[in-house]
Amino acid sequence: MTTTLADNWGVHEAQFWLRGKQPEKRVEFSEKSGMWNVYGHQEALRILADPATFSSDFLRVVPEGTFPDQDKDALSAGNLIQLDPPMHTKLRKLVSHAFTPKVVADLEPRIAKVTTELLDAVGGAGRLELVEDLAYPLPVIVIAELLGIPASDRALFKGWVDKLLDNDDEFSLKEPTEKQQKRLKDTMEVRQHLIDYITGHADERRSRPREDLLTKLIEAEVDGESLSPVQVANFANLLLVAGHITTTMLLGNTMLCLDAHPGEWEKARADRSTVPSVIEESLRFLSPFAAVARVTNTEADFGGTVIPPDQMIMVWVAAANRDERTFTNPDTFVATRDPNPHLAFGRGVHFCLGAPLARLEGRVALNLLLDRYPALRSDPDARPEFQPSPNMTGVRKLPLLAG
């Protein structure tokens, strides 16, 4: 399957782990990008668990002017993935109540209802495009309702997010190419559309508060001070975008894994208690977010390979999830793999806040697909289309035959 995925379905050439290859070195410096790459599981785990040494404030080492017409402080304000403790801890607490096990569990009937409605809309045509018909709208509707923004605007979000993700460049800290500069300029323009959209709804909440996350962000205080409009917009933007991309790719990737392993598909249909394990193995096998960035605050020694301070590190969690030192037969999809210490949702203080919700959405949707479509399979005449980014692994189109 890995050869088919990587070579026949257009997975980015940088994702060597999908081609059955182990890295020559677990930690290495890239002259091309000016960054360090970390591919090993134990090395990645160490970095993710130590925010004091490995900071999330990676923008501080990005050269000035890299992001056209953007203040780096404004880009990171309120953005959880770019903040370190204690500010990260304080901001995370503001919304953590919305993702507690009980709150998430209580969402199951709503998730099931939305999934059923979306599948009903497909009708009996005998085919569906999984991303367009289910994997994209389901998590967008759920996170939009939590935030308090119109889920009916999801086509608008999709247009913006698709443009954000439509990037096959490998980012470099070296002298930027004309292509990279244009790409970053386009990205900042699209991002501003999202920020302006959320800011408009936030402004409305200041005069007409509701029982939603956006209102809670506006009313919240950290150290006795309210969040600035920029912090609110960045925070809400992260929740909206990250809150659906992971689940969208999780659902598509899981279906792709099961389609390529029909025996596992039949086992899951016969024994639904295995569905959570299937999802976890999908997350390991095709990790949606392939990499996360960190910056060294101090010198870090990895078995004699020394990374100096103020160096950007790309932690390739997707490669770490194929580390043969941690996972037996890492290039084999084993639906009942146990233990399965994958890093698809990160680890430590930055462990994905929405992981329980993504897992629930995946479980509910997969069970309903199993119920409704006994012969669901890929369309041999319409191959899947993957995200072009080297930092992401997920289908953006997955045509399926339902009859």
UniProtKB/TrEMBL annotation:
<dbReference type="Pfam" id="PF00067">
    <property type="entry name" value="p450"/>
</dbReference>
<dbReference type="InterPro" id="IPR036396">
    <property type="entry name" value="Cyt_P450_sf"/>
</dbReference>
<comment type="pathway">
    <text>Antibiotic biosynthesis; vancomycin biosynthesis.</text>
</comment>
<protein>
    <submittedName>
        <fullName>Cytochrome P450</fullName>
    </submittedName>
</protein>
<dbReference type="GO" id="GO:0020037">
    <property type="term" value="F:heme binding"/>
</dbReference>
<dbReference type="GO" id="GO:0016705">
    <property type="term" value="F:oxidoreductase activity, acting on paired donors, with incorporation or reduction of molecular oxygen"/>
</dbReference>
<dbReference type="InterPro" id="IPR017972">
    <property type="entry name" value="Cyt_P450_CS"/>
</dbReference>
<keyword id="KW-0349">Heme</keyword>
<keyword id="KW-0408">Iron</keyword>
<keyword id="KW-0479">Metal-binding</keyword>
<feature type="region of interest" description="Disordered">
    <location>
        <begin position="379"/>
        <end position="403"/>
    </location>
</feature>
<keyword id="KW-0503">Monooxygenase</keyword>
<comment type="similarity">
    <text>Belongs to the cytochrome P450 family.</text>
</comment>
<keyword id="KW-0560">Oxidoreductase</keyword>
<dbReference type="GO" id="GO:0004497">
    <property type="term" value="F:monooxygenase activity"/>
</dbReference>
<comment type="function">
    <text>Involved in the coupling of aromatic side chains of the heptapeptide of vancomycin.</text>
</comment>
<dbReference type="InterPro" id="IPR001128">
    <property type="entry name" value="Cyt_P450"/>
</dbReference>
<dbReference type="GO" id="GO:0005506">
    <property type="term" value="F:iron ion binding"/>
</dbReference>
<dbReference type="InterPro" id="IPR002397">
    <property type="entry name" value="Cyt_P450_B"/>
</dbReference>
